[in-house]
Amino acid sequence: MRYLMLVLSTPEDPQLRAEDAAGAPPIEGWVEKHYGNGAAVLGDRLRPPQDAVGVRVRGGKVLVTDGPFSETKEAIGGFDVIDAPDLDTAIVMASEHPMAHGGAIELRPVWPLGLDAGLDAAPGADAGPDAGGA
Fold first, then answer.
1. Are strands 75-83 and 2-9 parallel, antiparallel or unpaired?
2. CA 15, CA 17: separation in Å to the nearest integer?
3. What is the pLDDT of residues 67-116, one digit of tens each?
4. Which of 20, 81, 85, 110 is the most exposed place for a label (fewest CB within 10 A)?
5. How many Å apart are CA 19 and CA 72, to the nearest integer?
6. How far apart are CA 102 and CA 20, in angstroms?
7. Residue closest to 24 by CA, chosen among 119, 131, 127, 99
8. Transmembrane region positions (predicted)?
9. Residue 118 located in a structural domain
10. How much is the pLDDT for 16?
């Protein structure tokens, strides 16, 4: 199963201790291990929230706004798409990422659209509440 790992900075996390962040393994080791064995398939850093642009269509008009958009203290600093046989394995992979020590990792299972034969949901799998297309 594929998972999106959102790599978050959490500067105001009250549980974050300096020794946790200081004990984080180097990112190069995580990349070498997980990209090297093919479990991580895509990833990159993201520019800061102030460089973001929001795009919405309202009343038939395209509205573009400059970031940042959220009121949250967390910011998405990057992402990785990983292949793992199950959630437990994905959690282990996420826990090995340096930002799990000094920030946070959010794991989200990918919900395939079924448009690509290689990404179709398993037969009999729940198509979700909005089955019928995106």
1. antiparallel
2. 6
3. 776 666 788 999 999 999 999 999 999 999 999 998 999 999 999 888 86
4. 85
5. 24
6. 6
7. 99
8. none
9. no
10. 82
